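We close this part of the discussion by returning to an individual protein. In the encoding step, the backbone of a single protein was reduced to a row of integers, each denoting a local shape. The sequence in question and its structure tokens are set out directly beneath this paragraph.
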Amino acid sequence: MITAAVLAALATACAVGSWRFTTARWTSRAPRLAIILWQSLGVSWGLATTGAMLAYAVQPYGTGVLHGLIEFGSGEAPAHEWDALHVLALIAGLTALTVLIAVLLTAGVQTLRARRRHRILLRLIAHDDPGVPGVRVLAHPGAAAYCVPGLRSQVVVSEGALKLLSEGELKAVLAHEAAHVRERHDLVLLPFTALRRAMPWSKVVAEAQAQVELLIEMAADDRARRYCSPRRLATALLRFGTAGAMPNPNGTLGVHAHHVMARVERLIEPLPELDIPTRYGFMVLAIALVTATPFLWVIQL
């Protein structure tokens, strides 16, 4: 019973923390750290919520969540008699856990299929250009620049973008897309997309997804500015914003018009970084959240 109560308290704390985190102002100063904390909150909330229900459900076994589920799956009889509340908690917990896993797998499969279809399409409507080696050029007059992540990742720009951008701006945009590929931001975003499908009614989940989308763009901006002028990237973003950039195909990451001014201001006048004690404090919190929930699944309090 104590394990279930602790997990329920942890799930509540993660939910409240996520709600408060949506209004945090420091995230743009440390986007990678903010992404890690968002991931920790999401994983901990999911495991704690389902774990609280399952901990109460397998309480008659007296062996903890994980061991109780193993004994239940093997057909062993509990030490104490089950009642209707324990049965309902088991059904609710297993259903919630199944839904979370199912939407994650479904989102992953749909994304992989969309990328495969788009790669096939690129073979037909894109070509190589000696001026931009290693980049596929899309035969389209609109402005577009995006990456298709995966084992065979590709960076794509449109002919319209090549005409729109200067050489320095194009280099900055390509560095930004290469950062998305290198840091696998598609995998960062996938759980939040899946959670959004599972809970379309939740404003906190919608805000979390939107914030993570912005944070991975900022993280890619930070990576790109190591190899190019931040002002070149800022002017490229403004050009895409005023030209009306094409929407990104499903399963890809790329330049779009959302939050352009926030990113431009951050590139031109960067805010001071978080101090080291604050960074370590948030890292310790993230690690504690990720490790505490699995630990509570194993032990019996």
